Amino acid sequence: MGGGRKYMFPKNRTDVEYEIDEKARGTRLDGLNLIDIWKSFKPRHKHSHYIWNRTELLALDPNTVDYLLAHNNYQAQSAVPLRHETHGGEDVAVFAKGPMAHLLHGVHEQNYIPHVMAYAACIGANRDHCASVSSLGSSSPGSLLLPLALLPLGILF
């Protein structure tokens, strides 16, 4: 689940949440409405429901829904929850060298970075790859990747 409703709707379809924002309108050039297609593939006598915000989720009666498609904005977990943000949302450069550096190439969505860092550092879920590396006598593959440089581009130039 995550943002990107505009990729599920036909070109220029108005978004229910951002009606006046032209950037949030549908972008599909094939004219398909993927939400309607998803709803049409349910078995007969089953009920599907599409929700896009917390209010709709809380108002939903689970006894009346067999299939649920939720399209909410994903928010990465925070290791240290803070009252205020510490990042303004500007572009950042991510540099990696060493084992698992191949996971950080090109451009990635911001929610990808914490997952890559956890995977490379062998913390959290998906640690199966760590056992084979640690048997080689080296430290975790993430020991070289964790000191990532997450610097605002303005500092670099």
TrEMBL record:
One of its GO terms (molecular function) is alkaline phosphatase activity. GO terms for cellular component: mitochondrial intermembrane space; mitochondrial membrane; plasma membrane; side of membrane. Its cofactor is Zn(2+). Zn(2+) binds at residue 87. Its EC number is 3.1.3.1, 3.9.1.1. PANTHER family: ALKALINE PHOSPHATASE, ALKALINE PHOSPHATASE, TISSUE-NONSPECIFIC ISOZYME. This is Alkaline phosphatase, tissue-nonspecific isozyme. It comes from Pteropus alecto.
